[in-house]
Amino acid sequence: DGLEIIRELKEARRPEPIVFVTTTSRTAIAVEAMKLGAADYVVKEEGYVSIIPFVVRDVLERSRLKREREDLERRLARAEHLAALHKLTGGIAHNLNNPLTTVRTFLELLPSRYEADEEFRTSYYELVLSELNRIRDLIGSMMRAVAIPEGGEDAPWLLSELISEVEGYVRPSLAEKNIRLRTNVREGLPPLPAGREAMKQALIILLDNAIAFSPFGGNVTVGTRLKRAQGRSQLLIEVADEGPGVAPEHRKRIFDPFYSTRPGGIGIGLFVAHCLVRAHGGVLDVGSAAPRGALFTMALPAGTA
Q1: CA dihedral defined by 197, 202, 203, 208, rounded to 10 degrees?
Q2: How many CB atoms lie within 10 A of CB 287?
Q3: Contact between residue 296 and residue 274 where contact means Cβ atoms under 8 Å apart
Q4: pLDDT tens across 139-196, in order?
Q5: Residue 268 DSSP code
Q6: Rounded to an integer, what distance in angstroms lies between the CA atom of residue 148 and that of residue 156?
Q7: Contact indicator for 63, 39 with CB cutoff of 8 Å
Q8: 3-state per-residue secondary structure call for 210-231
């Protein structure tokens, strides 16, 4: 029947739009045809043949507009990618040029001042080593940004187990500032199918960031919950601190590379976390915690509800 023909056409990935013509006026049949991929339908009533050309023209016009929109979206995505690449390249150049200038100055002065200038041999030498370490850290951060772990072969994993594992990574940082890590992990959450290592890396970054901005003796909270909307489910991981929070004017740029509100920060960590979450179909967002502080939320797809 017509419904089976639509199924076969869609399975064969035929690109032509389909107009479903049926003898029944039952709404359920028309709805089923549209769900299978029909662009429109016509009921075989008196005069229906004269209606078909108008329906076909309308469907073809909608199909043309859809192709144009998809083409524009591809161009926009490419333009955004190039803009992000330009910003990233500019940030790398800026953050490398400054320490390299220090190293070059040291090497230029080395022949004439090393023997006679003790301060040059000590303080300037230590400064150069510090700048070289800065370059090393920057390159390491960039490598982590582009080396997004693949998660397609993961066994299903639970958020509760991942959070327990991550606690061990941040325990020394917590102890250094006497910060308490509070966890509120809901029971019975469904397992996630992929991306365990990527999400672990992203969560460690968020916790490191929360600890850095939290006051001495404060609290950092990690919570999980399930959100259902429009037949889909999302697993949410929320990291809250008691620091100064992220001002509204900074939120649009907080995930940009080399943008940091942290004194001495490179501005790579949140960029890496954002890339990791997006690469696995999720969303990373920032808001305000109650009564104060920042709230970072990772929303990961959990399949159909």
Answers
A1: 130
A2: 14
A3: no
A4: 776 665 555 555 445 678 888 888 988 988 888 889 999 999 999 888 888 888 778 8
A5: -
A6: 19
A7: yes
A8: HHHHCCCCCEEEEEEEEEEECC
